[in-house]
Every structure is written in structure tokens, then in C-alpha cells.
Amino acid sequence: MIGTTNDTGVCPRLIEVALPIREISAESVRDKNIHHAHISHLHIWWARRPLPASRAVVFASLVPDPDHPQCPADFRRAVGRLLKTHVPTALKHYRRGREIHRDEDPYRPYEGIPDTLRHRLLMFIAKWSPESLAFDAGKRETPAPPKQLLDDRSLVKWEVSDPGSPQGLAVLRIARELVGVAHSGDVPTVLDPFAGGGAIPLEAGRLGCQAIGNDYNPVAHLILRATCEFPQEYGKPGKRKVLVEEFGRSRVERDVLVPNVLVHDIEKWANWVLERVRQRIKHLYPAGKDGRPTLAYLWARTTPCSNPSCQGQIPLLRSLVVSSRGTKVALTLNVDKQNTEISFGIAKGKAIKKTRGTKRVRGPAVCPYCDQPTSEAEIRAAGRAGHMSEQMVCVVVEDTAGKDFRPVEDDDLAAFREASALGVERPQELILPEVNSDDAMEGVSNSTGIRVHLYGMKTWGSLFNQRQLVAMQTFVASLHQALQAMEKAVPDTGYRLALGLYLGLWLDRIASFAANVCRWAPASRIIKTPFGGQAVPMIWDYAEVNPLADSSGTASTQLRYMLKVVEHERVANGSNIAVPTVLLGNASSLPLGSGIANCVVTDPPYDDAIAYGDLSDFFYVWLKRSVGPLFPEAFATPLTPKADEATSLKHRHDGCEERARTHYRRLLTASFGEALRLVEEPQLVIVMFAHQSTDAWTALISALFEAGLSPDATWPIATEMPKTALALGTASLETSVTVACRPRIVGSAASFKLVRSEIVEVVGRSLKRFWSYGFRGADLIVACYGPAVGVFGKYERVEKADGTVVGIPELLDVAKEAARDAIAGEFRGDNLSTVYYVWANLYGAAEQAWDDARLVVQIGGDQDHAMEVARGHGMFVVDGSKCACRS
Ligand SMILES: C[S@@+](CC[C@H](N)C(=O)[O-])C[C@H]1O[C@@H](n2cnc3c(N)ncnc32)[C@H](O)[C@@H]1O
Q: I need a surface site. Which of 4, 77, 128, 577 has the fewest CB within 10 A?
């Protein structure tokens, strides 16, 4: 896909000219569903950028456009040699099962596209597979499966990052050579000042760059070290003493060459810890009378019935179904109305008479003793007054056929009582300290998705029941013993630090599956962490895992997930990759020399979308207890520092939205200014941004302008799309927009009239392109913001005829209107019928999130009341946070 061309006479980088965004989007969608060895399985972090998008963006930011007249000749020669005349033999075929298909020229452009070096480079980044092309041409009936949407030799493909894949290594060698040639043989430095979970520095390192990743949040900082630094530094083959079976003798210790000492040692020490934990607390998870091992306990919180003449404890259950896979399994209720007591049994298949629980998501709880409702507000009040309790409702057990369910037995209750009697320490650090501390301002509402404090759960320790706390504290104590033992056994302090960190992150993973806000998923019959979204929602009926079992959510499963990531990110054989540098600091002032980076590629926070500090406190309190002394610089504060987090969260500003926004804009501006100081000539700063609101975009654009940067090219990249990437339907896409920025050169003031017509023209053109690439809905409109900013960013200011200055929100509105008009095409009617037409074109009958709908409806005019007007005219069918157009 071709964008705008920089006409300064200097050779632009590829990202300023072209990027295969449809292909990158397809692989980015797939990235979300890769569960084997993906870095997201090392530890939870929020708003991770997809690895394919990160790899493509870093690569295209470092190489010049080979078709530009000013492109250095040696780079052109390298592209011609590596991607045309001397393609490595390993890349001249692709496999499908056992079949090998010869393909001598893997990077030739698609049919009908001129064979230029630029197009070859684009094919190298990402290219559709033969199956996808055949489907697109109508020569194949079924679309290619996600794994085969892209050609195997595409740089962005997940398999390319597998250090055991010969084709992957060949592709990466080409990428590294091209990056090297583009920098006259030097290793370029790529800086990400908002690095989070590390996708960008990790990919920069993979492409042979010296990566610098920074984050303000200590949890992110440690995740970054475990993702981008330690596997690369220590993940090498080496000798270890291993017990081996020898003929005629029992197991003897021998020096053995292991493929990855880091993986080997993490596993060894984690099992050392696990063994000690097992010895101490195994008896707290007894098997049932039938001997079947316990995997998990299902609990219901209980709340007093609001009926004064009843006041029984209502068990809060969303549904009675505990398994909907295979033969359905559901709880049965044995209600003793006289004594207001309840016990639970199990029914299967046809024996199930009732599945509806006692509590609806947004509705009241219905009392099983007196049938009276207790409202959500009354439940909250009971929670805050300490009147909520909990009841074990059934036990998940290991069965020859997988998992089964049994009623609670006396031993289960006795074991829990025993754990409770141990009275271990409960972490007292506050959840959302600005909201929950004693001196918090009255009525300050929480602008995060954290809900549990509304029910009285105000400390991080309150998210664990007594036995879960015993388990966590036993893991922490055993980990401390391991660290002590390592002092003798592992002399290299740096390496010891690395091993300690992985053990700490492992305990975090265990904690995230061992909290009383973990959900039981009947369809998959597994435990889910509370961090599926950017929130800690209240869970009525939770699952308590037996961490010592070997099943979903247990310690051994968590370890396996982690080890796969560490193994995958190991140093590839024979490559001499620079180990990334990881910093802990504020992006607005970094301890680095001016011009240190060849390029900045970053993904800053999106306005108020995610409360990183508040959410990560869940992990901070455990990491501090487990490995705090190893990383004193990261644990200097009682909770994660939040004062300089570049977010716009009003609860951190006494509930004042305006102050929150000013804070965000100030930090974003200072951080972009700092990025400009740190990047050498010709200064290129790439920003990825994933927010749809005009406010967030206004903050971003203002910060870029104030810092002296201006967007040069814009690329929307989707992370969610319909199954068939080539024949996209009408579903909404979740898109991040990548903006390539250069220092802003501003001309004089321009008239609004002139700028408006330029925006209309540019947006009209861009929208058609983005539409043809499958972008729909609010994503489509937001994608057009970049080209619009490219228009008004050229001018010092935009003025109306009376001299008033036009602000960024108004200019973005012009872009929205232009987008609406471009879709509406020839259709002319009143605002509502235009909205209807646009809506039908964007979404058809598909249901949309309320916020997406609001954005589209707002382009119909009356900003504040547009939704009410549209609803008033009966245009939408609304269901909770979703709505659809009435057909
Ligand atoms: C959108 S996330 C980055 C996600 C990352 N690209 C990834 O793939 O995981 C933004 C990050 O900025 C960090 N952050 C917020 N304020 C910061 C500041 N002032 N300085 C540095 N980092 C900050 C947050 O902790 C968060 O990790």
C-alpha cells in the first residue's frame, strides 16, 4: 500500500512511503491467538502491541525506500541481491505437510504490480500465501486457515521468530543485513520510551538493532528485563549436572550439555520451590472420599437477603451450570427454608432441572428462601459493611476422562478451616489508594475498570481467601529459601538475579490464577484470571485452584507456559545479537545522551484507557514480597509510582477530568520532546496509538505539535477482523494507528476555507483506500485522522475569516464529516437519514459497541445529544453496551 511521499529531496524511510497493512493486519489478528511461547504468556501486561505489527513497523522505520531517487546505491544493490537475484536456497520452497513446493522467486510482487525494489521489500515484509491468493482469485473455495494466510517467508510471520526454524533464520538474516546496510554497517539503536510488555524492543533486537526499552512502571520494567534482556543474555547451551539413567545402575549425576541453561535452571529452581510448597501445604487440598484428586473448588459469595423477615445468606451464582462441554453438569440447590440453610448437589444431563442462577449480571439477587430480590446497591452496602461471606458449592476433580465435579465433603471444609486457622499475613496495601484511603476525597469516582472496592474489598490482600493466602505466602517463603540456596549454588550475581526474577514472575502468574476474583468458565472448564480485560471486575462465583495439581491455572502449568517463552526468545544459534538495554524511568526525562537513537518507535498510553499503575499493583505487592530485595530500585515505593504516569485518569486528580487531561498532555508533550532530543538526524519518531475518541486524538496531536513533531504518514493496523482477510465483511475492526513523524516545519497561517477543502480532498482519497483494505466502522474514521493532521499540521495555525483560531478538535471534526460525506457519496438527505445510510454502509445489521455507535452518530451533527436524538427516532435497538440499527 502506497502512502504519501516525502518531497524534501531526502530519501524517506520505507514507513513514510508504503507498508503492506492488510497483510500485517492479518498476521496481527493471528498473533492474538498464538498461545504457544508468545511473550504474553510470560506475564500479563495491558495493551500489548502485536508482534507482527511491531516487527514490521521497526523494520520499515529503519530501511530507506529503495525506489526513491536518493536511496543509497548499496541499499538498492542489497535489496536486489537478497530479494531477487540471490535469494537464499532455504527460502526457495515452502512446505505444506509433507509436500515441498518449489518457489524460486518468493519475493516477486503480486501479479499486475510492477517489479520494483520497493515492491519486493514490501513482499518481504508480508505477502499473501498462494492459498490466500487462490481464494481471492476465486480459484479456491475455502479461505486459507489463519496460519496460512501469509506466505511462510514473510518477515512478520510468527514462525519466523522460531529460533529452530531454518527459514525463519534465513529471513531474519536478510532483515538484519538490510538494516545493517541501511546504516553503513553500524548497529542502529531503536528506543522505545513507553515499552510496556516489550513488543517493540524485542522485535528491534530480533532485527539486529541495539534496542533500548524504558517504562515508568516497575512491574513493566521487570517484565521487560525478563522478555528482552535475560533470554538473550543467558539463553545459551551449556553444561549442567543432570541425573541420568545408566544401564545397570540407578540414576547417576553426569555433566550434560543442555540446549538452554536458563530454561534448565529456571525449571530446576521452580521445581525446588514447588517441592517445598508441596511438603508444607499438600494436606490442605485433600482428595475426595472416592480418592479422585482435587483440581479446584467453586465458591459463591453470599449476601444477606434484604427482606427483614428473612435475612438468610443468599449464595450469589450467575448460573448453576458448571460444565457445558460434553454432558452438561449443573449444581442443584437443597434449600432448607426453615433454617435458611442451603447445600449443593450435582446433576448431569437430563437430570438437570434448573440452570438459572440466583444473580443476574446487572440485576438483583433472588433469595432462595423467600424469593425476594436484593438489589445490587444492597449487595454493595452489605459488602462494605463486612456482611458478605462465601460458601463452597462444589469441587472440581481429576477423572480418567479429564475433569469431573463432586459435592462438597466434610474433609474439604475441614481443610479450609485448617488453612484459615493458620492466620497468615494478608497484604494490606490499598487498591486504588486515591479512592480508598481514609483521607480520600469524598465522592471521587474511579476511572478504571477496578470494581471490587465497591463491595468492600479495598486491599490487595482481600482478593485472596484464607487458603489462597496460605498458598501464596508459602510460595513466597519457599522462594526466599531458594534464593538463599542459590547464593552458594549460583555464583554469578547477575545470573542469580535473572533466575530470581523468573521465579518472582512465576509466583505472579500463580497469584493471578489464585485470587478470589478468578472465574470458572463452564464452556472450556478452565479457570480464568480476572485480567481478561483492563479491569478487576467483581466476581460472584469464583474458582479456587489447587495450585499443586497439574491442570489449568496450577503452578506447574504456569511454569510450562513461562519456560516456552524463555526458550523461544533464546539467542538464535550463531547470531551475535546485541542484548537490549532496559531502563526504569519517566519517558519525559531519560538518562541518555542526545542523539543516541537512530529511531524512536513507541506506543504511549491512550488517554484514560488503561490504569497501568492501579492494575499492576496486584502484581507489585507480590513481587515486592518475593523478589523485592533483589531489585531495590524497582520497589522503592509502597505501591507502583503513579504521579508521573502519562495517563488521563481523573481519580488521580480529585475527580477533575480537566486536570487529568492537562496532566496527560503535559507528560505526552514532554516525552515527545525528549524523544526528539534522543533521536539523531534525520529525526524519525514513530508513534503507535490505539484510541478512538476525538479527545484522545486531540491530546496526541497537540502533544506532537507542541513537541515540534508532525505526522508524515499514517498506517492503520487492525488486530481484530473477520476470518477472511481478503474478503473483509462489515464487522468492526480494532485498529491501532501508526503515525510516522518528522520535525515539524510550519508555514504561515492558513485560512480555514483552504484547509477544509484540502482535508476533504485528502480524507476522501484516504477513506477509499482504507475502505478497500477492509477497515470499517469507527476504525475507518479514526484511520482518516492521520492524513487530515498531515494537512493542517503544515500550518502554524488555521484561522477563520474573522481571525479566530480553529482548534484541533474542530479540525478533526472536519475530518469526521469528510469521512461521513465520502461514505455517503451521492446520497443527500437530512442528518438522520445520512447517519442511517452511513451506518448501513459501515456496519450493516451487525451489533456494535455503544462507543463506536456514538462516534458514527456524532458525524450526523448535534454532538452532545446525537445518540439521544437517534434513539428518540427509534433508530437503534439497544442492549446494554451494544446497539444495532433497526432494520
Ligand atoms: C500502550 S503501553 C505500551 C505497550 C507496549 N507497546 C507493549 O507492546 O506491551 C504504554 C506504557 O507506557 C507506560 N508509561 C506510562 N507513563 C509513562 C511515563 N511517564 N514514562 C514511561 N512509561 C510510561 C505504561 O506503564 C505502559 O506500559
A: 77
Does ligand 1 have an atom closer than 6 angstroms to the CB of 194? yes
Q: How far apart are CA 567 and CA 604, in angstroms?
A: 29
Question: What is the amino acid identity at position 660?
Answer: A
Ligand 1 center–CA 390 separation, angstroms: 37
In whole angstroms, give the CA distance from residue 358 to residue 364: 8
Report whether residue 612 contacts ligand 1, using a CB cutoff of 6 Å.
yes
Short-list 415, 369, 419, CA closest to 395:
415
602 CA closest ligand 1 atom index: 6
Q: What whole-number distance in Å separates Cα of residue 132 and Cα of residue 123? A: 14
- 664 pocket-lining for ligand 1 (C-beta < 6 Å): no
- Contact at 8 Å (CB) between 717 and 738? yes
Residue 422, SS3 per DSSP = coil
What is the model's pLDDT at position 878? 67
Residues 6+ apart with CB under 8 A from 810: none
Place of cell 474489598: 457
3-state secondary structure of 44: coil
Domain locations along the chain: 14-197+585-607+659-689, 289-408, 747-885
Rounded-to-integer distance, Cα 488 and Cα 491, Å: 6
Taking CA atoms only, the protein residue closest to ligand 1 atom 5 is 196
Decide if 854 contacts 883 (C-beta within 8 A).
Answer: no
Distance (Å) from CA 264 to ligand 1 centroid: 31
In 3D space, the residue among 246, 121, 236 whose CA is nearest the CA of residue 171 turns out to be: 121
- Does the Cβ of 605 fall within 6 Å of ligand 1? yes
Give the model confidence (pLDDT) of 139-167 as tens digits.
Answer: 999 999 999 999 999 999 999 999 999 99
Q: How far is the CA of 199 from the centre of ligand 1 (A)?
A: 11
Q: Rounded CA gap, 189 and 201, in Å?
A: 10
Q: Is the pLDDT of residue 254 over 50?
A: yes
Contact 722, 729 (CB under 8 A): yes
Alpha-carbon separation of residue 565 from 562, 569, 784 (angstroms): 5, 6, 37
Ligand 1 atom, smallest distance to 646 CA: 16
Nearest-atom number in ligand 1 for the CA of 586 is 20
Neighbours of 371 (CB within 10 A): 11
Q: Are 876 and 884 in contact (CB under 8 A)?
A: yes
Pick the closest to residue 732 from 619, 637, 824, 850 (CA basis). 850
Q: Hey, whose CA ends up nearest to atom 3 of ligand 1?
A: 196
Tens-digit pLDDT profile for residues 366-418? 999 999 999 999 999 999 999 999 999 999 999 988 899 999 999 999 999 99
Non-local (6+) Cβ contacts of 732 within 8 A are 720, 776, 777, 778, 779, 843, 846, 848, 849, 852
Whether 475 is in the pocket of ligand 1, judged by its Cβ within 6 Å, is: no
Q: Does 447 score more than 70 pLDDT?
A: no
Q: Is 667 in the pocket of ligand 1 (CB under 6 A)?
A: yes
CA 196 to chain centre: 10
Residue 776 to residue 840: CA distance in whole angstroms: 11
Percent of the chain with pLDDT over 90: 72
**In a mutational test of the pocket of ligand 1, which residue from 28, 45, 57, 194 has the highest number of ligand atoms less than 8 Å from its CB?**
194
Is there an atom of ligand 1 within 6 Å of 199 CB? yes
Report d(CA 384, CA 315) in Å as an integer: 17
Residues 6+ apart with CB under 8 A from 849: 732, 881, 882
Whose CA is closest to atom 12 on ligand 1? 194
* Residues 6+ positions from 100 with CB-CB distance below 8 Å: 93, 94
Q: pLDDT tens digits, residue range 84-126?
A: 999 999 999 999 989 999 999 999 999 999 999 999 999 999 9
Q: Tell which atom from ligand 1 comes closest to the C-alpha of 193.
A: 21
Pocket test for ligand 1, best of 645, 678, 700, 737 (most atoms within 8 A of CB): 645
Pairwise CA distance, residues 18 & 4, whole Å:
8
